Model the fold of this input.
Amino acid sequence: MPRPLEQAVVAITGASSGIGRAASLRLARRGASLALCARSEGPLAEIAAECEADGAEVFYRALDVSDEDAVEAFAAATVERFGHLDVWVNNAGTIAYGPFEEIPSAVFRQIIETNLMGQVHGARAALKRFREQGAGVLINMSSVWGRVSTPQVTPYIVSKNAVRAFSECLSGELVDEDGIHVATMVPQAVDTPIFEHAGNFTGKQVRPIPPVLDVEAVAEGIELCAENPKREVNYGQAGRALEILHATAPPLYRRLAHGAFVRGSFGSVPADPAPGNVLESRGPYAAEGGWHARRERTLRRAFLEAAGASVRGLFGKNS
Done:
């Protein structure tokens, strides 16, 4: 069984914002010792200080998870500091919206490097330590987009599908390692700053389509999985319904979902093409994106436009 969180050392990548920040604070309150990393030193130091104020012992290091040597050095320094490593949360991720041919190659490549290879690097570093001690929990962050597809978010979907397959492969290889577990998180849209961080090559501002999960729900899932790991943790009935429709009736899924995604995700406000935080770190550095707190009208409009597009698609009026 995994070590109780009060005695555990937990490493979290992408800890400065979003799900990583929320999970760091939640685990700090549980008494875990934390090793945190992200690209930007200042925001990372801030979340480390918040966790220490909640009573946690914290080690942190600024790094890019696409740098394998840096990830390995971080894991080694974590074990040197705390004596062991019990849970590794592969959370760091980036996203870009736009037609495939409009997303620059450098942006596409970096999303794959961060979302997929960053988790590969984390797994290499973590599993090495887990095998030495005979126990550990690797938590990989996928998405409902690891099971389904939609237009104009290709690099993210490719990366998240790959993460799910990667987790399945690792689970198969570790089947005889009773003390080592691989868990995959599969949330639908989450209320984090990811939509402000996103690369955007659509010409319009990006918004999530409801229902949007509370970031604390996903952070709680990470907390629970760290102590009682499951092979896969799904969040949100809407996301699960999309997965089932995609698997059982692909043509119907495309008619209902593809147009709904395009109409719902992109509002009427113009936006200049930009890589967001894909190529370099930028704020806001917060756990929540504020969609539930101050953007309910935008969410309602996104939902209505997506629903209208689904109805038109059902009757053959969408491409």
